[in-house]
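Thread: "does anyone have the structure for this chain?"

Original post by V.I.:
We have the sequence but no experimental structure in hand. Need at least a predicted one for the grant figures.
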Amino acid sequence: MNPLNQLRERFLMNERFSAVVNAILIVVMMTCVATMVVQVGERLVPEWQGGYWAWVALVVAIESVLSARLADRLRLSTWNYVAFRAIELVFIFIALKLVMYARLGFGQLWADLPRWQRDFNSFFDGEYLFACVLNGGIWLSSWSLASTVMEMEGDVLLLERDRGIIETGRAVARRRLAGQVFGIGALLLVLVALLRSDLSLLGINTPALQTSLTNVLLYFVLGLLLLSQAHFAVLRATWSLEHIKISRDMAQRWTAYSVAMLVGVGLVVAALPTRYSLGLLGTLSYLFNAVMLAVMTVLVLAVALLVSLISWLASALGLNFVPPPSALPTPVPTPPPRGVVGPPVPWFDVLKSVAFWAVFLGIVGYVAFYYLSQRKGVAAFLRRSPLWRWLQGAWRLLRGGVRELNQILAAAVQEGLRRLRPARGEEPWRYVNVRNLSPRDRVRFFYQALLRRGAENGLPRRPSETPYEYENDLTTSLPESEEDLAGLTDSFMEARYSQHPISAQVADLVRRHWEHVRQALQARREKKGR
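Reply from O.Q.:
Generated one for you, tokens below.
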């Protein structure tokens, strides 16, 4: 193995370990936040037991982190990216409803179905809305943290990139990550203050809870570990740009040393004499109560001043808003409406029921289909289940029964359209006009053509391969095109990851590289066919 490939392999191993550690840290941090939110809900509604929602939030956080990486790997367009996220969120909301009925028993689901048809607002009860807000926030926060962390990955690609752009980008992402971690931490402290404060001024008479601070401490410890990993990512960028050789287990040792340092600091802090102080959380609780008291006092004074002003104006104008008892009007009973209401129309009720369930089930089915189509691993697991095989058999039976009728109808429609259309020549073959593309898109177009033609010639690019690794594989099979492959790959990396404009001369050079590689692939195919 040449030194450059060995260097790439080591950076790739360290980055993969850091990515796994970052994902675990984000999931556990979001679970700590969800646990605290659930505790606040249990204080506001004492008879409610919602501890299981923290475990659901754990699953949602895992799904969000994995989906963030999947979306980044798919390289979706803006519209497809929005659709991907929206469908995923709707799928999660549907799953939350199923979780509720799994706990209550699915017999309750069948009992609630007619009620949804009569009043669809009953679908969104209090606990379900709480679950949607909680898990929607956990999903969005996990996605945001995971996306920021992924901006500090790609060590192998940095070996050929411009140093100034990369260092600035990773430093900015690290600062944004720190803002996100401490912003969520501030919200966590507010939740702790709500739990440990007297909320009688707000009409909440449940006593303050002296809850354990384990969730708060764990969140901030893991947040510091995540920021340590971000600093390690910035260092890896510098090392990769300088082609500095690092060990394979650098990421493991960095994580272990970070944990050891935080544990040591925690032991030192625990040994310090702090009994004379009020404490951070006690201070927050005191300040929260003081602020609420001040707000209520200002509101009472404002209302009293407004009432006094209105009374003074009424006295000055000689008005009296309260009439004497004798002047009060006698309520007149409202006569019942005349007319006889006819019986309901049965067919209209049936039509409304069909429309309601068609729309409802259609939305659920589309969300499930789109969600599974973007996640091949989950779809493959479901295909191996007995239920899926039974559904396949039922679908084949149904499809076979209507296939012949469908073909007859399609043939009849085509024949009718053929008779209605005037005779004319066939439309020309539609193709992508490369000249109308921008230079950056032309570079990407020719590289995609390389991937497609390579796969057709038995040289496909593996999903785990980087463009430079794929270049090495092609060079092994096409040694005469080494220079063209290198130029094509370098130009694609520049067009894909840089922000500066791509000139038309670069796009024309890439086209010539592609023509040479295409001829080499064609010659290879002809040689194998002999």
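V.I.: this helps a lot. Confidence is low (pLDDT under 50) at residues 274-280, 321-330, 338-342, 422-430.
O.Q.: and Residues 3-270 form one domain.
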